[in-house]
User: Fold this.
Amino acid sequence: MNPTLRRLLREARPYSGRLVVAMLLGVLAGVAPLTLARVAGLLQAHVLIARPELGAVVLIVVLVIGSQLLGNAASYGQGYLTAWSGQRMVASFRARMFDRIVRMPLSDFDRWRPGELQSRMSSDLNLMTDAISISLPQFIQTAVTFVGALIYMIYLDWFLAAVLFVAAPIVAWVVSRFNALIVAGTKRAQERIADLASNLVEVLANERVVKAFRREEFERERFTGANERYFGAYMKVTQFNQTQAPVLALVVMLAVCAVIVVTAREVGVGRLSPERAWEFWGATALLINPMNRFSIFFADFARAFVGAGRVFEILDLPVEREDPPGAQPLARLLGDVRFEHVGFAYDPGRPVLRDFSAEMLHGEIVALVGPSGAGKSTIVNLVPRFYEPQQGRITVDGVDIAGVRLADLRDAIAIVPQETQLFNGTIAENIRYGRLDASDDEIIAAAREANADEFVSRLPEGYATIVGERGIRLSGGQRQRIAIARAILRDPRILILDEATSALDSHSEALIEVALDRLLPGRTTLIIAHRLSTIRRASKILYIEAGSVREAGTHEALIAAGGAYATLHAAQFAR
Assistant:
């Protein structure tokens, strides 16, 4: 059995009750049309004669109306139950994919393009949705009608049925061949739509850069190229789908022509009565339609298996390491952070930190300074266990963070990034993100401490103002103050700042500097520092170079020492 199919069947177990009822209704819906074959015989024997029999006419009308009513009712019930089960399963996939993505280790997350993830949660799931909600119910009914018609044909005349099914091996070969082509083509098409989505996401996220460098035409051509590649891949799949049906129809029609010749001979020699011939042809008509439709269903299922396989790739991705047995709680955290001979590399053989040792004690403001690529961002990302070191250990209050409860560790940490990341909600909702159970009064108090209330109170909708995607409706300084208010509300023991005043105007910088003066005391603060004002606020400066601490001390002491820090300061910060 196909591994993807086996896994889908396992996923369907919670809905087995509804699916069993749906299948029974599908059997009923598939059997109902078979009465039409008997109707064909009754028409020939009792109606298409010189004096039609009234009783036979009434019986035929009752059979036709009854079979239609019964079949339609069963079809509705089966379609609804199957769609409910299928959509519930797809909704579960969607929720689990999202959960897997948000819990993915950053080391794995960084390898994925956002557009690729978006494509798998939309386009690939849609392939499954179409197959489960539409094709599967119809397939069950069609299959039952097909099997029922076949059995009835064998009952009427096994020899004629055998003549028709000489084409069966050819049909099976055609279907299998085209399905292989459809699977390969669908994989290519899904890869192309992922490229297209990634291109779109990148441009939307960097719209200002595109306009600033006048790259609209370049991006249009790039998107057009990706769009054309997807169009070509999609049309190739369409070509396979559209070719398969007429090829199968031709094979079936050739078999039907053979049956016509044989039937005429059988009736002519008196071995088959006209009534039975009509019934056989009624059953044949019911058989041909399913044979033609099977190719469509199999193509839909083939595409669904491709989508399911790509969905399972996401569901099989690793999540952040679970807390080890006996993980220690961090109930009362002071915030003493120590790096002890830490080694770390994003890629094997390319170390970022080499035997890195340092301490950041509670109440200290530690500035990390050094050239680009020295490892400063890596250091602050290791503290909340976004990544885990390959050598050495990191401790908080003397406890190795590898052995503590991850939730406790991150609850004690707040981060104010250089590029403020806000969500498309209200100002109040973005501040409350720091602590979801915070009251409105606590949100306003945090905003005042961050000097955010100064501009929020002037907005027409105040704290109910929608900030837009990534906070686009606010200025850089306003977004940064919202981020600081979010950190204040969290009341962390360890605070990480990625240069919170970088690239701001002097007024916003001054307001944020005041807010930081309120936020920093009493906490362990790690700052990736660029500006002189931030560095001078630090009680300790670590000059990082090539993944190691070259110098450590206060601003004044390091300047007096005349080493690497003094050289960097003279080159980058002196005016």
Observations:
- The mean pLDDT is 80.
- Strands lie at 337-347, 350-360, 365-369, 391-396, 399-400, 413-416, 494-497, 524-528, 540-545, 548-553.
- The radius of gyration is 35 Å.
- The chain has 21 helices and ten strands.
